[in-house]
Amino acid sequence: MDIININKNAIEFYKNIDFRVRDFCSPLNNYLGISLFIYCKFYKDGEYLLVTNDTTLNINYIKKITYADIFYHSYLSSNKRTTYDCILWPQFPKNDCMQIYFNHGYWNGISLILDKSDEFIEMACFLSDKNNSNISSLYYKNPVVLEKFTDCFKENFAKEIEIFLGDKKLAILSNGINLYIPPKFIENDEENIQEFLKTIGYQREKIEIDGNLIKITPSTLKCLELLSQGYNIKEIAQQTNRGSRTVETLLNRVKDKTGFRYKSDLIKLYREKINVY
Hints:
Elements: H1 3-32, E1 36-43, E2 47-52, H2 55-64, E3 68-69, E4 74-75, E5 85-88, H3 96-103, E6 106-116, E7 120-129, H4 135-141, H5 143-156, H6 158-166, E8 171-172, E9 177-178, H7 189-199, E10 205-209, E11 212-216, H8 218-228, H9 233-240, H10 244-258, H11 263-274
Parallel strand pairs: 3-9
Antiparallel strand pairs: 1-2, 1-7, 2-8, 4-5, 5-6, 6-7, 10-11
């Protein structure tokens, strides 16, 4: 297999759509501070499609990277309903594949797992400037926006993607790829998520109940506030743009942590321990 010439063909194809991709992705940076968008599909035999709004990076990736694995730090828990699983990139590069992005000035990334099987993985990735760690707050609060952008990208570039995949204009990793990512619910997920929230300054309210410190998230505080104002579960769900079941779950977690069982107890907790009238 003539990998060099195959990869040259892939590079030429990327150059042909460079302007359109950069133009389509420009609002990401203009409005959200996201510098790099990546749409990629990797196959277990080492073939891959990698489209970004930085062709220079694309070319360097094809020329220099011979082996890849999935950038995994932790799944991102979110209060927003999302179609795709979201995984955070680690705080710093851990291999050559990661380092090439960092060397081009990009980092602080998140990947959306669009589709996955034993044969391939399809992803969309969003990165900012490597010094912009605050972008993680945007990822946490607005994963649905990233999903919508990805869906629009795939729709607008459906023809190009079809040509890539159908005509085998794929680049090749000569040493292959590891498609494995850990299952969604792993033991260290919660620890990683809490560490992530800590780094972006996400605060939890702490209250003392019988000598124990109880942590309550801002979203739960909002539900307690509305409950204390006389709103029912359905009305709280509407006010907070959540499902009724989510609101019930948040309030039940407070009950579990405090040992309280009644709505009147939660209202008293909020008024006397959290918000003093």
